[in-house]
Amino acid sequence: MTEVAIRPLARSLAPLPEESLPGYLLRLSYRLGRSPARVGMLSGLSGMHHRLPGDYLLALPTQLADAFAHTTRLSSAEAQSLTLAGSGLVSAYAPLAATRLVQGRNHAAARSRWAINISSRFCPRCLAGDGSPVQSALGGAWKLPWHLPVVFACLEHSNVLASACQRCHNPPNQPPRTERSGLLMQRATAGLHPAQCRHPLLGPQSGTVGPKGCCGARLDQSPSKPSAIPARDLERALALQLRINQNLFPTSSQLADRDQLFFNDLIAVSHLIKFSWPMGASLLHSAHLSSLIDNHAAAVMQRLDQQPRPGPRPSSPWSAPDDPAQCAALLTAADELLRHSHTGEAELRDLIQPLMRASLARLTPNLAASFRRMEFSPALARALARKINGFYHAGGHRGSKRRTPSRECLFRVEHVPALLPASWMDAHFTPFQDLLAPLTNWNARHLRRAASLKLAEMAGGGTWPECAQALSTPWNTAQQSLKVVKRLLDSNESREAFAQAVEQVARVLDDQSHRIDYANRRGLLSSWHLPRADWRHICAGLETRAGRATSPGPAAATALIWAQVTQGDYLHSPALGALRSSGRSTGPVVTTVNQILHAAKCYQGEKAQLADRLRRYADLLADACDRSEASPQGAYSPFDSYLVHGDFSTTLFPPDPTHSRTGDAG
Q1: Among 391, 415, 406, residue whose Cα is nearest residue 481
Q2: C-alpha to C-alpha distances, 461 to 314, 443, 510, nearest whole angstrom
Q3: Alpha carbon of 310 to those of 15, 112, 245, 313, 449: distances in Å?
Q4: Cα 660 to Cα 663: distance, rounded to the nearest angstrom
Q5: Which of 23, 28, 419, 448 is 20 to 30 A off residue 6, Cα-Cα?
Q6: Is the dihedral of CA 193, 196, 200, 202 positive or negative?
Q7: pTM for the complete prediction?
Q8: pLDDT at position 314
């Protein structure tokens, strides 16, 4: 940097409230009688070819900001406040947070995300100034919020902003397609008032209209034609602009309650309305606003139908309308739809789903994928999600389309067992089961698994294969259960009853002050097996008929204990998994487990006593897992901690126990 570049200017200006960096440069250069490019060079902003990069509107590098502040006699905070980042708008307006304007190469992407317009909208009355001497001479501020697509109106003067010059009908800072967008157009031209149009005019009149062929029309003169929006519709648009401004510039009391995804939802629904138009026309109840969206949607559909060809690319169909009145109409329609999220998610879903289907039918697969990658609020994401048989559509076995929880839950997915306990089924599913034909044990097991998958979707979101993975359930097993449940729930009444029963369980889980972390139990017991010594203690005094293929053994006991502690399916226990991995048959163990479970229901015989002892042992092991007393990998024994309290052989397993039904293992 040269010595001249860091010397303070002889005269400078104090920034106006909400003033943008390009607007400040226009006012300062006009006061000094120099071109914006010359002022940029003296203040350290411009480099090669005296360029003023458009990305400086977003943020100034620290070194440049310090140099600019020094030469213009501003503080560092004042210099940074001229940018979107320094003013706080980047943190308030979500689309800006992911925007990168590196050397002007990403302006199109920023426009398609509704992040920024390099060419500012404007309010003529604001540009005319407030009557003070400095604003009478240099004009009012070109404001930072005018660069945001969601700012379409001036609340101070109750009018829709302008976006183009009345004489040449061009945006004030949008160069021809042959020139790269920058902070200012015609930056080397001096003598233009800050409120004069700088757009170049080509042809025979280019040298007679303004300095060096610029249009030169004053933009601070109020339009002679009436407002682009009738008074009643303008009132609705201004009310929405007020809410938008409150989200852009929240007060300290509003910060805690600010909806971080307010703008994401508003923009996403605007896309849905645009791509599905005129399906959403009933939202507006205004012929004038509808006609504005008609014009914008027709242009968008024309761009979508165009075949790619060489030459300049048309503007993206995702971009906000250039016309602020069209933008006001589109956002007002989106806001009307989103208001239904406060009255009920079911109503919002009924309104959203037809628009979603119509939009996706018009979009190519890659454009539809772009929409799915957007981030929404949970309420909107649930309304947008495609469901099949009550579950988020998986898009194939492992495809991920929506991770948003399908319900606002106080419990988490780790509090959901892989197999809904039979006691929960008895408590909440009895009226539902009365609608079905008599259930077999296997069909009941499929219902329990499907209910757990639904609870996991409620708490953690994701498609059913993702929910199955979260519950450590093989996806093919989950798929089979959903197929069985689909056959069982063959009427709207039965499907609604199933959903209501699962909702009852979810409410109970929400109300619990202490919830079991089943994911923690599954993790701790992922390779656990029953110690031989404990097996001998459990069998003390019982005839286990050793020697037969289906005689109770440690493997069957391990599977049953694991199933009770984790509330999972014993078929997915590590004990049976080890047999499968070694190539051995699981048949004898499965038969033994079923015999023990059947004996437990009959409350008779030594196998019933064995089942009761296994249940008590499982209670000890579950307590140890929940208290994190150990890492029960391998052959951990809960008796180690039980011995502190007494003799397990007489206290835990009394000689003549009073049998009770075994827990919900399997």
Answers
A1: 391
A2: 38, 25, 16
A3: 44, 21, 41, 8, 56
A4: 9
A5: 23
A6: negative
A7: 0.74
A8: 58
